[in-house]
Amino acid sequence: MKLLNIITALTLPALAISQAPQHHQIPLSPPQSTISIPHLGFGTWNLDKSNVSAAVSFAIQTGYRHIDCAAIYGNEKDVGKGIADGLGKAGITREDIWVTSKLWNDHHRPDMVEKALHQTLSDLGLEYLDLYLMHWPVASSPINGKTTLDYIDTWHAMTLLPNVRNFGISNFSPAQLSHLLTHSSTVPFAHQMEIHPYLPQSAWLQYHNAHNIHVTAYSPLANSNPTYDTSVASTSSSLPPLLLNNSLIVNIAEKRGCTPATVALAWGLSRGTSVIPKSSHAERIRENFGAGECGLEYGDFKAVEGLGGEGTRFNNPSQSWGIGLYEGLDGV
Description:
It is a single chain. By secondary structure, the chain is of the alpha/beta class. It is 37% helix and 11% strand. The protein has helices at 3-18, 52-62, 76-90, 110-124, 152-158, 174-182, 202-210, 247-256, 260-270, 282-289, 298-305, 318-321, and strands at residues 42-43, 66-68, 98-103, 131-134, 138-140, 147-149, 167-170, 190-194, 214-218, 274-275. It has an 8-stranded parallel sheet with strand order 1-2-3-4-7-8-9-10, covered by helices on one side. A two-stranded antiparallel ribbon has the order 5-6. A hairpin with a 6-residue loop joins β5 (138-140) and β6. α2 (52-62) packs parallel to α3, α2 (52-62) runs parallel beside α10 (282-289) and α8 (247-256) packs across α9. The protein is globular.
């Protein structure tokens, strides 16, 4: 079933639930004031292990005020060291930045959720998170590794956690998000998902806008991320070229005095999403930070969006996990 049809089918139940009292978060401890989520963030997935701390510190010194991390990345201790170093060298405080982390699948059992948060806070050396996401709507058994769809009870447990300012989700399908909305009075503050010019997910993004759920785009530079094995990317046609080598992106960059990377990031920012590019290289960290200065015209925006076609998705563990993901979404 196409996404537009699924969204239409879900509209009435979603609107019905939207008329009931809803809350974006229910912190148990009195929160201090927190900044709004910065739309240009710095990702930490698969950073070069030899310089995670240095990269995070340099990003903060460069001006990034949004750091995205996760327990499964296995580097939160080094990220925490980078945050502390960057804050000191930039002359700012913890309250000046936004830090997101994520609950991994093996801690979905409600009695394990708070333990996972405590470990993340300890590793990062922080007292609170600005945003805590459920990484996937999937639970994996810590005993046998069996994977199942499981998220409602986990979500309820998450929303009761102290030391978290906002709660959100990641990698949910339309049906899963609708199911969550109808079984909880706590609306996710944000939904993090794969979005880039090869996977615009425009209808899905509009759905979130209509329900006041912020969207963060991971992998905003698409297959430029060396993590992806592009030979197995889901697509109905031949694989696209590396996004930063795409002739349309390159031509727009030349016309606007930008770089291909900043064109792609500026496109994402212009849609109202947060983007979280990552790099271990100082020059690329600086380059990506310039996305806010890359001025795209309307024609540029539409041309870039046209690269999506039916969508090419690069992050889809459905086969390896033995479970269906992204039902009704593009690029599946």
